[in-house]
Every structure is written in structure tokens, then in C-alpha cells.
Design a protein that fits this description.
Length: 231
């Protein structure tokens, strides 16, 4: 059982950008207070299939953010499922202050991480004080069911937050995929909390608190369920 859980954050968009720097700094500082290392771990898996140029783009953006925050930035190249079994990657997240899953394809995150030793290690670190964040695809993958965005069908998430489903970029996605969003909201038999998180906006929970808090430029919309949120 987790005795000293860290912060968990679900972010609508904006990972590694100056607009989210203050929030990401706070996530790291929460963990430093729990004795974790001043280290920012990037998990770029969701964008792994977008090519080398995009991998380098996200790597640089994350390392630039780490420099602005004043911490060690580590880009962990988890691009294939076999990468989540490598001992050096598992060791890299030991006592990390912040582990951050960035955006791209949420379904691919689950395919790579489900039932792997690296995912078990990340969960254990979070349960013992590390801050854990997922932006866009990362936030979606933490939940129970992932809405089909880059794919036509829904898929199973990592079930870290089994009672939550996330639609990121909510203030924009209604214009991009209105029919798919509507069908996901009204999905028969769904009894989870479905949250629409606007861009440059985050929902987070600190430690053993039950209350989820909202920060950032936009809103978090409770589309299904009765989850209580605070600003």
C-alpha cells in the first residue's frame, strides 16, 4: 500500500512549454519535499512513431524546460515495448522527482507499457513520493478507457486511474472530432468519471488527498460522473 504517494497530474496540453513551467516546477518541488531527486524524466513513447525529427524536437523541448526549472533532465528513449524491459531504463527512474508522459498516440503508450517492469517501477516510485504527470496522450493512457482519436476504436488504458477517462485539448477537440466526442460521452454502460481538460490546463491530486484541483488557463469539464474539483 502506498504510504507516501506523490502528486499525479492530468494535463490537457502544453507539456514542457514556458506556459506550464510554473506548474511543472511545483510538481518537481512536491517530490523534492519527499526526498526525491531533482530530476525530470521525459517519457516520449506516445510520439515514437512520428519519426526521428519529432523525437529530437520533443527531446529538446523537454530538456529546455528542465534547464529553465533548474533540474536534471533525462530523456528516456522508450520507443518500443522491449525498451520497457531494459534494466538501465528501470534504474533511471529510481527516486526521480518528476516522471512525465508527453503527447502523441495514447493507445501506443498502453501497448508499450502494459505489464512491463518499467511501468511497475514507475507506479512504485509514484506510490512512494515521485510526481507523475501525463499530458494529452499521457493523461488519456493513465485512465481506464482511451477514446479513439488517432484510431477509429476505443482501447484499454493502463488503469492507473481506472475510474477516470480523459479527453484532452477539450476546448479544441469539440471542433476537430465532434461526433466521436459525443459518442464517447454517451457510451452505453460507461460508469466512469469522464473529464474534458482544456489546453494549457491541468488537473492534479496531491498525495493521499481525495480532492482534485484545477490549474492553468482553461477549465476541466466533468462530462460524466460526479468527481469534485477545486480551483
Amino acid at each position: 500500500m502506498a504510504t507516501n504517494p506523490g502528486v499525479i497530474a492530468l494535463v490537457g496540453s502544453g507539456e514542457y512549454l514556458p506556459v506550464m513551467q510554473e506548474f511543472e516546477t511545483e510538481l518537481l518541488h512536491f517530490a523534492l519535499q519527499r526526498g526525491k531527486r531533482n530530476t525530470f524524466i521525459q517519457i516520449p513513447t506516445a510520439s515514437s512513431n512520428e519519426g526521428v525529427d519529432r523525437r529530437n524536437f520533443w527531446k529538446r523541448r523537454g530538456l529546455d524546460q528542465a534547464a529553465r526549472i533548474g533540474c536534471e533532465g533525462i530523456y528516456l528513449p522508450i520507443h518500443e515495448r522491449e525498451d520497457a524491459f531494459k534494466a538501465e531504463h528501470i534504474a533511471a527512474v529510481e527516486s526521480a522527482g518528476l516522471i512525465y508522459f508527453s503527447g502523441g498516440d495514447p493507445h501506443y503508450i498502453t501497448e508499450v507499457f502494459k505489464e512491463t517492469p518499467l511501468w511497475e517501477k514507475i507506479k512504485n516510485e509514484w506510490e512512494n513520493g515521485t510526481s507523475l504527470a501525463g499530458c494529452s496522450a499521457g493523461a488519456m493512457a493513465f485512465g481506464g478507457t482511451i477514446m479513439g482519436v488517432r484510431r477509429s476504436s476505443h482501447s484499454q488504458g493502463l488503469n492507473l486511474l481506472s475510474d477516470i477517462e480523459v479527453i484532452p485539448h477539450y476546448d479544441k477537440i469539440l471542433g476537430w472530432l465532434p461526433d466521436r466526442v459525443a459518442s464517447f460521452i454517451a457510451r452505453a454502460g460507461a460508469n466512469t468519471n469522464l473529464l474534458g481538460i482544456d489546453e494549457n490546463t491541468a488537473l492534479f491530486r496531491n498525495g493521499n488527498e481525495n480532492l482534485w484541483r484545477v490549474t492553468g488557463a482553461g477549465r476541466v469539464h466533468v462530462l460524466r460522473g460526479n468527481l469534485e474539483l477545486a480551483n
